[in-house]
Amino acid sequence: MGRPKGKNRKRKNLSEEPEFIGTVYPESMHDGGEDNAAGNDQPDEVMNEAVQTQINDETQSPEHRVCSQEPDLNDGLPNVDEDAFNEHAFMNDETPAPESEGTTAPNKPKRSRGPTRMKDIARDPNSRIKVEFNSMGEPYGSGSVKLSSYLGPLVREHVPVIIEDWRKIGEERRTVLWKSVQARFELDEEYHKMAVIKQMGCIWRASKSRLVSQIKSCKNNAERLKLRPKNIPPAEWRKFVKAKTSAAFEELSDTYKERRRNQIPHTCSRKGMVRLAEEMKKESSEPSEVTRLQVWVKSRTKKDGTAVNTNAAEKIKKAAELVETVSPSSTSTNPKEDLLSQLFGPDNPGRLRAMGRGMSQTKLACFQMKSKFMDGMKRDQLRLIQQVHDLEEALSKIRNQKQKAEVGENSAPRSVNMKLQMKCLLFDWAGTDEKVGEGRILSEEPEEFVNIIPLGPNSYKILVETAIKPEAYLWRPARNVFNMEQAVGEMIAWPQNFVVPFSSGCEPEDITPLLSELLQAA
After folding, report:
1. pTM of the model
2. Which of 289, 373, 279 is nearest to 332 (CA)?
3. Contact partners, residue 482, CB within 8 Å, separation at least 6
4. Which of 181, 281, 345, 385 fits as disulfide partner to 287, beta carbons 3.0 to 4.6 Å?
5. Looking at the predicted structure, is the pLDDT value of residue 46 above 70?
6. In a domain, 343, yes or no
């Protein structure tokens, strides 16, 4: 016998639409309340039969029928019975009867957008998506959009709405969430974790708020039971529904609704202030001049250029007047003194308008100080880089001078005018008074190079023309040039005390007495 068609069809659907593949769990993760082994894997029909059995057991005796120990979901709601939680009791008195053949069937409800699942990310766990962060530690760019879309279904799967406060989800569940995000996105720093966990909390609270609104709009308990998430047991769901439909919660909700009405809504949708500010900086020629006031005005303006409501229009008009009265040079970046604080007054403690979630004056001051030091380091780095470039240029010039000087090391430079250079006799630098060669004096500047070595003081740069004593050693040997015979046609260095210049009318035989006189004077 083959398997029932229903089971095969269900397994096929599960394999075709995996919500999260490869979710990372820590080894010490054993939270029975989250796993709900009896509730996550069973269909709603089985769960409803279990609820019906529990209700029947509690109501077997007349005493239980009069006063049941199970809390009633419908305190304050007329004609609502406990059996309404059973799926087989959906067709009760409050359910409209089927229409006759002559009546017109009502229009089908418009198909709405379902919950985000991000199946493409779930099916490709090997390629991690890069997420950019701005100087304030907030994500932005295309990677942050996918991150936000991924965090929604992830947090709805792992964090039940019956938890009272996001800060009470526990360290193990927090680790599961963070490891699952790291498996899909390039997030490794500690400040990445702080920003993502904070964003998860905001998404979880928004999802919980939408679920509570759906609970309030339901007409009976059967409709409320259909809204039960799979990670919440039926008993806990009944308690949650009762708490959210109580008079105390309604009073608290009305208070926050009234406070919400006094606020001016923005048109950023899921983009948020951070992404909007980064887009404005990217489009602006001067990103540093994008102020909080400009971001706020942009976020309260529709695509057609009109304000989101009349209150926003008045504030935008006043903002334009403030900008005209204040010069750009006197505009302050201090959130206590900038134009937005002048328009609305001081910000609430722990919050800053048009700066994203969780931004406070203390955090902003820390980030501004960090940016100031980073800018200073960048300026120093650019200055050092410029100095390195200058040194490289100087070294390049020195190398060029060496190359020019080395032209005469192998052959006499053609540009040297021999007639303008003074002829000289070279005597043995060892002090033997012997003539070793003849040449011409090219320079006596100490900065001149001879054989890649500066000439130095008390020396001549000599172009050797004749070797009188070929075996005489050079004062400064060079590569492959060690004696006068090898130095003919080359430029060498020779001490001034052993060089005697002579004019064209002077004979070399008359130079020897002059050299003796020079040596005696030295």
Report:
1. 0.53
2. 289
3. 473, 474
4. 281
5. no
6. yes
